[in-house]
Write a structure and sequence with these properties.
The complex is a heterodimer of chains A (254) and B (258). Chain A has 254 residues and is of the alpha/beta class. Chain A is built from 11 helices and 10 strands. In chain A, the strands form 2 sheets. A 5-stranded mixed sheet of chain A has the order 2-1-3-10-4, sandwiched between helices. Chain A has a 5-stranded mixed sheet with strand order 7-6-8-5-9. In chain A, β1, α2 and β2 form a beta-alpha-beta unit. With 258 residues, chain B is mainly alpha-helical. Chain B has 2 domains: 33 residues; 222 residues, MetI-like fold (Orthogonal Bundle). The two termini of chain B are 32 Å apart. The chains are: A alpha/beta (254), B mainly alpha (258). The interface between A and B is medium-sized, with 25 and 21 residues.
């Protein structure tokens, strides 16, 4: 019994050691809560772990779900969305400070690396299965914009092949990676993050929607100063570099 | 209670009050926020009725499977002593403590399109059958656990008497054991059904979300939450009513039968 207790105590010490190694001086750093679109996971995790002014705690989900949480009174410090309409809407409702556009992405068709699918035409064939975002999440609304540009019969045939409307882009990627569907509409950065498991097929230029990411400091944030620093770094600094490495494009010129 | 120590009774009552308030408050809040008009209106949406229909169909299918296989399986676990029995019981109960995300990943790895059994042609993907599989997986342990302890608690002499009178084991199980264990079996059934109706994570990961095919009520609620909080509340209220009505009727029906 005593031996077990000693073992547990040792284990606890080791674990505590690991913890303090990861975020040294975390005691003096304030926690910064970041609600971010699922597609930002890789870039924000990298940026957040090296963010000096605060210990970043990011939660990733569909931008629409995160916006709904803020409307219900949840107060993260920063809200980063896979579109500009949600931050703009929260701004006009007085829930966030003025948002800025900080990155762009590209909607693509993701298929397994060895797939024979080569474009939208193949998706309309009977027997092909597709996953996309639900209509409320940005990736799903971009996808529906693309489909709206197709001839009606092709659009109907394609929609008939949809097997799942996922709540966020991570769900779409997962369904394609698992082989549950043949193809999915995701962002180019999501395909790059799979390390070669998936390949991206570009959409026709005339159908491609503009995908711009907006970020804002949430009104009533506990640490507005650090939140502003986090946002600034996304425009120019370590955040921008992390976004570049993850494959995000610079924000579109306005 | 009558043996002095009123302070302890006060403590017990305080604990129960706290527990009740905590457990009932969110449910009450749903109904406070939703007027009866919104509740009816939320049922007007075909997405909501599809989800309700699908939730009922898939949970009934899952419960039928669980009863059919789970009853004899838990009878065996409850009445036979053999090596490794405790281990088997633990394995059967394991899904109780698994997070739904783990259940979803596990189901994908086992019976997903690239799963362990895929080479044998056994794979469920983004279909209503996949929802049933997910519900069965998460709900079965609730029934198995209850059924097993209900069977184990039966008076052995009754069962022996039944057999002495010439009834085989199958007949004893059907005519004596199941009727006498009915309250326990019913409780297990109600728990499993409730768990199946509420399943969210494993369903989303394993079966996806598509109106009328795999989008059960919890998935429909999550989808609505983003755009239409009132609608999500309305649908939640409906699910609370349906679940409560189901559980209550199961209990009443079996109490009348028993």
């Amino acid at each position: 019994m005593r031996r077990i207790a000693a073992l547990l105590a040792g284990l606890a010490l080791v674990l505590a050691g690991c913890g303090s190694d990861n975020d040294s001086a975390s005691s003096s750093k304030p926690p910064l809560t970041v609600s971010a679109a699922a597609s930002l996971k890789k870039a924000f995790t990298e940026y957040g772990s090296a963010f000096a002014p605060a210990t970043v705690r990011a939660s990733f989900a569909g931008s629409d779900e995160l916006a709904a949480q803020i409307r219900q009174g949840v107060k993260p410090d920063v809200f980063a969305s896979a579109n500009t309409t949600l931050p703009d809407a929260l701004y006009s409702e007085g829930l966030v400070e003025k948002p800025v556009t900080f990155a762009a992405n590209e909607l693509v068709l993701a298929v397994p690396a060895g797939s024979s699918i080569s474009g939208l035409d193949d998706l309309a064939k009977p027997g092909t299965t597709i996953a996309m975002g639900s209509k409320s999440v940005p990736v799903g609304s971009y996808t529906r914009k693309v489909l709206a540009g197709l001839p009606a019969d092709e659009r109907q045939a394609l929609l008939a092949n949809v097997r799942s409307n996922e709540p966020d882009v991570a769900g779409v990627v997962g369904k394609v990676v698992q082989g549950a569907v043949d193809a999915g509409f995701v962002y180019r950065t999501d395909v790059e993050a799979t390390g070669g498991k998936l390949k991206a097929i570009s959409l026709p230029a005339d159908l491609k929607p503009q995908v711009a990411y907006g970020v804002a400091v949430v009104k009533g944030a506990k640490h507005p100063e650090q939140a502003q620093q986090f946002v600034d770094g996304l425009l120019d600094g370590a955040g921008r570099d992390a976004l570049d490495r993850a494959g995000f494009l610079p924000p579109p010129a306005t | 209670m009558s043996g002095g120590r009123p302070w302890f009774t006060v403590l017990l009552v305080a604990a129960l009050t706290l527990a009740l308030t905590f457990l009932v408050l969110p449910v009450v809040a749903i109904f406070v926020d939703v007027g009866p008009r919104e509740l009816i209106a939320s049922l007007d949406d075909p997405a909501a009725t599809d989800a309700l229909k699908l939730s009922l169909q898939t949970s009934v299918a899952a419960i039928a499977l669980i009863l059919l296989v789970g009853t004899p399986a838990s009878w065996l676990l409850a009445t036979r002593a053999f090596r490794g029995r405790e281990l088997l019981i633990t394995l059967v109960e394991l899904p109780l403590v698994l997070p739904p995300a783990v259940a979803g990943i596990g189901l994908l790895a086992a019976v997903g399109p690239r799963g362990l059994l895929a080479p044998l042609g056994v794979s469920f993907t983004l279909s209503t059958a996949a929802v049933v599989v997910a519900l069965t997986f998460v709900a079965a342990p609730f029934y198995l656990r209850q059924a097993q302890s209900a069977f184990a608690a039966l008076d052995r002499s009754w069962l022996d008497a039944s057999r002495t009178l010439g009834a085989g084991e199958a007949r004893t199980l059907a005519r004596v054991a199941i009727p006498s264990a009915l309250p326990g079996l019913t409780a297990g059934l109600a728990l499993a059904w409730g768990r199946a109706l509420g399943e969210f994570g494993a369903t989303l990961m394993f079966a996806g979300s598509f109106q009328g095919v795999t989008q059960t009520v919890p998935l429909a609620i999550y989808e609505r939450f983003a755009t239409d909080f009132t609608g999500a509340l309305g649908l939640s209220a409906v699910l609370v009513c349906v679940s409560a009505a189901l559980l209550l009727s199961v209990k009443l029906a079996f109490r009348a039968a028993g």
